[in-house]
Amino acid sequence: EEGAPGRRGERGEEEPAERGPGAAFHMFVLMEDLLDKLKLLSYEEEVLRRHNMRPLSRHYFALPTNPGEQFFMFCTLAAWLISKAGHPFEQPQECDDPNAVISSVLSELRSF
């Protein structure tokens, strides 16, 4: 039967959607899009030079290499983006409590 569930490309109501073969690479595509958008916002001049940081690679957040460094870069970018959106936000320090930093970032984003 053509409409029978379980055939290729179709799924029954109880079955979860299957991930395609490219799903494993979706995070890499998202990271490349993020990097393009950051470059359009001049993150290299406004963030990297000011904080003496290295440029992000195309897969920086897609692969867990150095969680502490990646977390600090994420917080630095989040603080910069919040400030760029017109809400003053203090730049977090590496020694700050990660839970407090994330809490303040989320709190500020909720106020948007």
Summarize the structure.
This protein is mainly alpha-helical and 112 residues long.
List the helices and strands and how they pair.
Blueprint: H1 26-40, H2 43-51, H3 67-84, H4 98-110
Helix pairs in contact: 3-4
Approximately how much beta-strand content do the residues carry? Answer: under 5%
Structural class: mainly alpha
Q: Major sheet: size, sense and barrel closure?
A: none
Compressed to H and E, one letter per element, the order equals HHHH
Q: Distance between the terminal alpha carbons, to the nearest Å? A: 52 Å
Number of strands: 0
Number of helices: 4
Overall shape: it is globular
Q: Which percent range fits the helix content?
A: 40-55%
Tally of individual domains: 1
Q: Quick check: average pLDDT?
A: 84
Walk me through this protein's architecture.
The structure is a single chain. With 112 residues, the protein is mainly α. It has one domain. Helix content is 49%, strand content 0%. The chain is built from 4 helices and no strands. Helix 3 packs parallel to helix 4. The longest helix has 18 residues. It is globular, with a radius of gyration of 20 Å. The termini are far apart.
Features:
globular; 112 residues; mainly alpha; 4 helices
